[in-house]
């Protein structure tokens, strides 16, 4: 039993004893005991009334003068209120410092509520996105940024990759958007001005495209002359070996130029060819015939399995380039008499084009970087096979155009499986 409760009980006992003595003297003991209880209750009601009036009208002031257990309750409430006010002030200070820090950022920071309405933004958002605090607060963000690509990106809550779009407030400017969900479907939008990066990237693309195009003509001329001299009986064997090496390197350079031109087109084409249904059975059989002729000396067993009757909506020439690169890589890195399996299938969610081999495989640390331009797992073996280092970069860009992803499963000295995973909306029935 606590000291406070003991004190309250003693108070009641003293009061009862006092009135019991008076009642005994007056020969009205029972009546005076009832009076004692009434007085005790009256004191409690009076204290309760004071406490209620204090909490209702002046809770921030020092508590009223009450007695007994009510004094302890009032003091405890006052301490809790004081602690809460201090915590609230600290929190407001933290929020204010956070807002000041965010306001100082060059990136646009925008808070959007669960209904998609603008809730708060920093000064950079006013400059970059054109929001006006006087008129736009509480408006749906998709009423202000009306680009269909942005609306789709925002409504799905962003994604792994950021969205890059032309600025809707400044011509010749570009903005990158990132969206993060928090709370009950609230969203944080971060926007960056990437105009300078976009210009540098465009310069790089133009340089690569122009240089590759200019290299094409001299390489064609050089290749033609070298081809006329190869295996010419008028030259000694030593000279013929030189011409053979020149032909090999010229062919390799031509392949590199062609891959650079293709990659440049995939990156920069603003007008894309119209997607059409692609008959996967016919396409894969054509690729199989080309694969058999690519390096017949290795005597690979190349098998095609079409487990799905569905067609794939896409750009056939680009898909052919992507699939051909995967098959060619399997041929290059699979020893003689190895097995290569090409399979087209689907399930309830996706369509799958996979190329499986039992070749030399790839160590796990290299897999995340395989689609980078010119990335080499082993420079020596890449040179030996004549690869350009652009094949998987081309595959990646083709798949991006088709809303697809590349999955790589490989083990060193066991083999590899490269799977192109297409969304269900690109799969169509045969007409």
Shape: elongated
How many H/I helices? Answer: 12
Domain count: the total is: 4
What's the alpha carbon Rg, rounded to whole Å? 40 Å
Overall helicity: 40-55%
User: CATH H-level name of the largest domain... which superfamily?
Assistant: Histidine kinase-like ATPase, C-terminal domain
Total number of beta strands? 13
CATH class descriptor name of the largest domain: Alpha Beta
What's the helix-strand series? HHHEEHHHEEEHHEHEEHEEHHEEE
Spatial order of the strands forming the largest sheet: 2-1-5-4-3
Average per-residue pLDDT, rounded, comes to 83
Major β-sheet profile: 5 strands, antiparallel
| Oligomerization status of the protein chains | single chain
> Which runs of at least 5 residues are low in confidence (pLDDT < 50)?
none
- Structural class per helix/strand content? alpha+beta
Query: In percent terms, what proportion of residues is strand?
Result: 15-25%
Could you name the CATH topology of the largest domain? Heat Shock Protein 90
CATH architecture term of the largest domain: 2-Layer Sandwich
Tell me about this structure.
By secondary structure, this protein is α+β, with helices and mostly antiparallel strands. The protein folds into four domains: 3-95, no CATH class; 105-193, 2-Layer Sandwich (Beta-Lactamase); 197-268, Signal transduction histidine kinase, dimerisation/phosphotransfer (DHp) domain (Helix Hairpins, Orthogonal Bundle); 276-428, 2-Layer Sandwich (Heat Shock Protein 90). The mean pLDDT is 83. The chain has helices at 3-25, 29-57, 69-103, 123-129, 133-136, 148-155, 195-229, 237-268, 280-294, 316-332, 379-385, 391-401; strands at 108-112, 118-121, 163-166, 174-182, 186-193, 276-278, 301-306, 311-314, 339-346, 350-357, 405-411, 415-423, 427-428. The chain is 52% helix and 18% strand. The chain contains twelve helices and 13 strands.
């Amino acid at each position: 039993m606590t000291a406070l409760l003991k004190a309250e009980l003693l108070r009641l006992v003293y009061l009862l004893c006092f009135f019991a003595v008076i009642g005994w003297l007056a020969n009205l003991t029972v009546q005076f005991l009832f009076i004692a209880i009434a007085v005790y209750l009256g004191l409690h009601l009076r204290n309760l009334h004071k406490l209620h009036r204090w909490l209702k009208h002046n809770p921030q002031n020092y508590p009223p003068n009450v007695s007994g257990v009510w004094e302890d309750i009032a003091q405890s409430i006052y301490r809790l209120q004081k602690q809460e006010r201090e915590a609230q002030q600290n929190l407001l200070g933290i929020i204010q410092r956070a807002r000041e820090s965010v306001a100082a950022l060059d990136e646009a920071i925008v808070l959007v509520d669960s209904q998609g309405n603008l809730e708060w933004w920093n000064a950079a958002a006013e400059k970059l996105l054109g929001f006006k605090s006087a008129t736009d607060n509480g408006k749906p963000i998709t009423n202000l940024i009306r680009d269909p690509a942005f609306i789709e990106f925002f409504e799905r809550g962003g994604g792994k990759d950021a969205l890059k779009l032309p600025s809707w407030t400044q011509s010749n400017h570009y903005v990158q958007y990132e969206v993060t969900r928090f709370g009950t479907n609230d969203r944080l939008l971060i926007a960056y001005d990437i105009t300078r990066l976009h210009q540098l990237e465009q310069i790089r693309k133009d340089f690569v495209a122009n240089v590759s195009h200019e290299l094409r003509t001299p390489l064609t001329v050089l290749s033609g002359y070298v081809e006329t001299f190869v295996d010419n009986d008028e030259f000694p064997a030593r000279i013929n070996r030189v011409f053979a090496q020149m032909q090999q390197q010229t062919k390799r350079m031509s392949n590199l130029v062609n891959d650079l031109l293709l990659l440049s087109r995939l990156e920069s084409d603003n007008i894309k060819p119209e997607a059409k249904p692609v008959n996967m059975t016919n396409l894969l059989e054509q690729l199989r015939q080309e694969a058999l002729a690519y390096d017949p000396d290795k005597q690979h067993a190349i098998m095609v399995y079409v487990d799905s009757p569905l067609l794939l909506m896409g750009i056939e020439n680009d898909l052919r380039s992507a699939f051909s690169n995967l098959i060619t890589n399997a041929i290059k890195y699979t020893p003689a008499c190895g097995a290569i399996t090409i399979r087209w299938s689907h399930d309830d969610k996706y369509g799958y084009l996979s190329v499986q081999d039992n070749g030399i495989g790839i160590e796990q640390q290299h897999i995340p970087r395989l689609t980078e331009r010119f990335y080499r797992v082993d420079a020596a073996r890449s040179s030996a096979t004549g690869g350009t280092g652009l094949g998987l970069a081309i595959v990646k860009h083709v798949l991006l155009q088709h809303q697809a992803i590349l999955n790589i499963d490989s083990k060193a000295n066991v083999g590899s499986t490269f799977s192109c995973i297409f969304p269900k909306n690109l799969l169509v029935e045969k007409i």
